[in-house]
Amino acid sequence: MTTTLLSTAGELHARARTGRRAVVMTMGALHEGHATLIRTARTIAGPDGEVVVTVFVNPLQFGAGEDLDRYPRTLDADVKLAGESGADVVFAPAVDEVYPGGEPQVRITAGPMGERLEGASRPGHFDGMLTVVAKLLHLTRPDVALYGQKDAQQLALIRRMVRDLNFGVEIVGVPTVREEDGLALSSRNRYLSPAERRTALALSGALFAGQDRHAAQEALRARAREVPATRARAEALSAIGESRAAADAHAVATAAPGSPAAVRAAARQVLDEAARLDPPLALDYLALVDPSDFTEIGDDFTGEAVLAVAARVGTTRLIDNVPLTFGAAS
Q: Where are the beta strands (DSSP E) in the chain?
């Protein structure tokens, strides 16, 4: 389809609107993860709606020593991929268009949630992110905006801002897109050497290990609830490979659903092994958190959670996460 490239909000506002406008915000260097967001936006907007992809490298999100200057700028390729994925418009404003008076004196503050995990590692990052998201929501005036779940803390903060400040827009999270080897798609993956990429696979490997441990725990508890509190219970537990739990089947069946500590331990083992590789993985954080506020969950937690990891391999910093639900079988 023909995709229009615009650089000013005036041009975008002048376009006739007949259906829903769906917006996908990016910093460019588009890849298959962005393409998935755009295709999802196309489905949501429908044939009568409009999909707008923003391309803007936001200087407020980059702290001292971060990669603003070397962040890839590939606008021509971005417009091509956006069009092939179903975008009607690529809105690529200059810094002066988004911040006409220079750096804004009034900004969105992310609050306590923005000071944890990514916020602790990158002070001020989420304030800058929320400020530009708020600006772009006003400039593009969408009915719905889509964001990837790979940036789970970012997505949670955007949802909180939209709710707390009464933005009239629907926020949709789209599942993480991965490469064939499991590595989450990211514009920063291109910085990895072959050896660094092999080490970087420990991020997704750790998450999958934690996810597998969680699934085994939930299956164990589901099986335990399906049989009477007798010898049959112990036999059922043994049958699914948890013979050590069979010694106290009743305690297992009545315990709090799931064990966050075991999930963390399974993920940590993979990361500890990766720290001894060449090149090594330098862990920033491994966290199992409540997505409503990104605080660590306890062993009695039930509900939705996020297992998140951040690490450096060489000079490249990568993040990843998987969603988990504790107590689903109950």
A: 4-6, 21-26, 50-55, 89-91, 144-148, 170-174, 281-290, 295-296, 303-313, 316-326
Residues 102 and 110: beta-carbon distance below 8 Å: no
Q: DSSP string spanning 178-198?
A: B-TTSPBP-GGGGG--HHHHH
Which pLDDT belongs to residue 59?
Answer: 85
Report whether 266 contacts 103 (CB < 8 A). no
Adjacent-strand bridge partners of 52:
23, 89
Round to whole Å and give the CA distance between 39 and 36. Answer: 5
Residue identified by tokens 């260097």 is 29
Which sequence positions are flagged as catalytic? Answer: 34
Calpha distance 50→87 (Å, rounded): 8
Q: What per-residue confidence (pLDDT) applies to 220?
A: 80
First to last CA, the chain: 48
Report the distance separating Cα 118 and Cα 309, nearest Å.
10
Q: Each residue of 5-51: pLDDT tens digit?
A: 999 999 999 999 889 999 999 999 899 999 999 999 999 999 999 99
Task: Give the model's confidence band at 295: pLDDT under 50 very low, under 70 low, under 90 confident, else very high.
Answer: very high
Phi and psi based region of residue 101 (left: phi greater than 0; alpha: psi -120 to 50; beta: remaining): alpha
pLDDT given for residue 248 in this prediction: 42
- Residue 19 CB contacts under 8 Å (≥ 6 apart), including other chains: 45, 46, 48, 49, 50
| Beta-carbon contacts of residue 168 (< 8 Å; ≥ 6 apart) | none
Q: What is the DSSP string of 19-54?
A: S-EEEEEE-S---HHHHHHHHHHHHHH-TTSEEEEE
User: What per-residue confidence (pLDDT) applies to 60?
Assistant: 84
The answer, as to whether pTM is greater than 0.90, is no
Q: How does strand 144-148 pair with strand 89-91? A: unpaired
Rg (CA), the chain: 22
What value, to the nearest 5°, has the Cα angle with vertex 14 and ends 136 and 105?
30
Task: Please determine, for residue 257, whether its predicted confidence score (pLDDT) is greater than 50.
Answer: no
